[in-house]
Write a structure and sequence with these properties.
The protein has helices at 6-20, 25-73, 81-94, 125-132, 137-143. By secondary structure, it is mostly helical.
Length: 153
């Protein structure tokens, strides 16, 4: 803005020395320095307040973005897993499809379980023993198909 080189500063100093005088020159230069430092401080404070206002504006903008994202992420579904399980079990017991959630994947494989007597029916000890008997190697070998000979294939 101001283009002061050494020659111009010497001319300004000589004019100030002549106009102000040698006795008053140190006091005037001190007051001038204090005024310049005060202006610099005020400019720094203004710049700091301006930067704070910019940060607050950015924070408010970020806060609005986060609020929008949380509102978009909220589910407006009343999700009660206990009630869902109750409905599914009740539907399975009654044989109805009410309250069941539809599966989107392949149908589950149905496993046939051996018929066991109901707890209220009388069961013989032999039936219970057969149901809970451990599998022995001999029984496993007799139930398993005979291995085929790979050399005949």
């Amino acid at each position: 803005m101001f283009d002061f080189d050494a020659g111009k500063l010497i001319v300004i100093g000589l004019v100030a020395l002549i106009v102000i005088g040698p006795k008053e020159l140190p006091r005037v230069l001190r007051q001038l320095g204090q005024a310049i430092s005060k202006m610099r401080r005020m400019a720094g404070e203004f710049q700091g307040q301006f930067m704070d206002a910019m940060r607050e504006a950015e924070i408010d903008e970020i806060r609005k973005d986060v609020t929008k994202m949380t509102d978009a992420a909220k589910l407006d579904v009343n999700f009660d897993p206990v009630q869902t399980v109750r409905n599914e079990i009740g539907g399975a017991i009654e044989g109805s499809t009410t309250g069941q959630v539809e599966a989107t994947g392949p149908a589950p494989e149905i496993i046939n379980m051996p018929d066991l007597p109901a707890p209220h029916e009388s069961a013989t000890e032999a039936t219970i023993a057969a149901a809970v008997a451990p599998v022995t190697p001999e029984a496993f070998a007799s139930a398993a198909p005979a291995p085929s000979d790979p050399s005949k294939a």
